[in-house]
Design goal:
alpha/beta; Nucleotidyltransferase, domain 5; 5 helices; 23% strand; 5-stranded mixed beta sheet; 5 strands
């Protein structure tokens, strides 16, 4: 089975796990640490990882430092696990947010973490759509 991990990085990390062959949503996770992300990589051994791009314009410190470090950790996990990393611009998910919000897996997520899993799933849907167009 080929697995797609789609990640919305930030203070709260949203993750969607997709079976690439069936294009079926396996599950979603709300994480707050690299350790949790490492566990997801071990459990699902992804072949493709989609991650929302983060552009920091004004320096490299402050509240966004955790996000930048997390993306670095994601890059390392992809290298260590021989997974293809695809960075996607934030705006690309916008067209898929409503569809992702309606997904049962997203609806089952608790409270404020739901939006991060929705964003991860929206990025996965965008990736799959772009894959079909190429």
């Amino acid at each position: 089975m080929s697995i797609l991990l789609s990640i919305d990085p930030g203070e709260t990390v949203g993750v969607a796990v997709i079976d690439l062959e069936k294009e079926f949503v396996i599950g979603g996770f709300i994480l707050d640490s690299v350790k949790g992300l490492e566990g997801i990589f071990k459990a699902y051994t992804p072949t493709v990882v989609v991650c929302e791009e983060f552009n920091r314009v004004h320096g490299s410190s402050g509240p966004h430092t955790k996000t930048m470090k997390l993306i670095g950790a994601i890059e390392l996990l992809c290298v260590q696990n021989d997974a293809k990393l695809v960075m996607q611009a934030n705006v690309l998910k916008k067209a898929y947010e409503n569809e992702a919000s309606a997904d049962e897996m997203v609806q089952a997520m608790p409270g404020s973490g739901r939006v991060h899993v929705r964003d991860a799933l929206a990025h996965a849907k965008c990736y799959l759509n772009r894959k079909h167009m190429s």
